[in-house]
Please model this.
Amino acid sequence: MQSRKPEPQQVVDIAITWLGTPYLHQSSVKGAGCDCLGLIRGVWREIYGSEPAPLPIYSPDWAERGSAELLSQAAEEYLIPATKPEPGSVLLFRMYPSSSVKHCGIMINQDEFIHAYWSRSVSRSAFGNWWVRRLAATYNFP
Model:
């Protein structure tokens, strides 16, 4: 288990190894299935060993309305807030202004991030205006 903050390139390198993993809600098994949070959990395990807390049940609905901000609360507790996205940063997205933060990914370079995309797989996506407008917060691994 690592005791110091990982280098950003280490986070990127680990995230890239998850590319092609099929989407599977609430899963986190490289090559077998994961969702967006499962990707973050898997990278965490490869860096630190075990996960810091048990996973609560959560809905797959990106447009879910309500006041519960489980993903944001977990990020605040276990990650380090960052002022801007950089390679290795964890990105949190709010898909609609009135919805909870329900999606996340890892920045891999200035123009791309990796995320588990519903009904597809862990993929690279351009970090273009569509995603930038939905960015709710940025964090780094501790």
